[in-house]
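By convention, each integer encodes one residue's backbone shape. The lines below illustrate.
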Amino acid sequence: MKLASSLAALSLCMMMSGCGADEKIGEMKQVYDNAQSLAEAGEKMGDAQKRMEARVEERRKRGDTLAMAYQDLQKYLPADIAGYTAQEPEGQSTNAPGMSFSTANRKYTNAEGEAVDITVVDYNAAVGMLGAYAVYAQAGFSSENNHQMVRSFDPGFEYSGGWEEYDKDNKTAKVHYVLGDRFLITVEAANKPDTKFVKDIASSMPMKELAAK
């Protein structure tokens, strides 16, 4: 109804103006396209949320109610990255009534002191914390200006989504993967021309295995 009202108002404005018809038609089309895009994004986000809740219930039924221990999660971090020295991995597991999540992270530095940071989080019994990431990664979002680029993408794995970020001013690249409606992987690197480097690192990790859990 709101969309119809907006289009009707623009149509009336165009007829009353007597000039600039092409511009008015362009405005009408933009209003319609924006409304369609918002509706489609909303549907995708709603579908992702419902699917995530259903998969959580599936895991509960088979007794999979706790996040992996952080020591086990660390095994999914790369042992090394060419040109970088790996520091000791870190991590933490948190369990409380109705909540369980674990984090594993590792830093890698090169001779110039530039760092690559990789984090893997298991939100198995704390999916409310993952929900915003999950729907964002699968909403088909993109935005770019002179300073920053943000864009979601399809990793090609079932029950998964992703988005990349690039800070043009600081040349910082980030990529995020939501896997199996449970895990969040983030790879960040300094002084890169684009996001290819961090996406290549992420693709070397056992993401399909995590997505299937």
About this structure: Helices lie at 2-17, 21-61, 70-73, 127-137, 196-203, 207-211. Confidence is low (pLDDT under 50) at residues 1-19, 27-39.
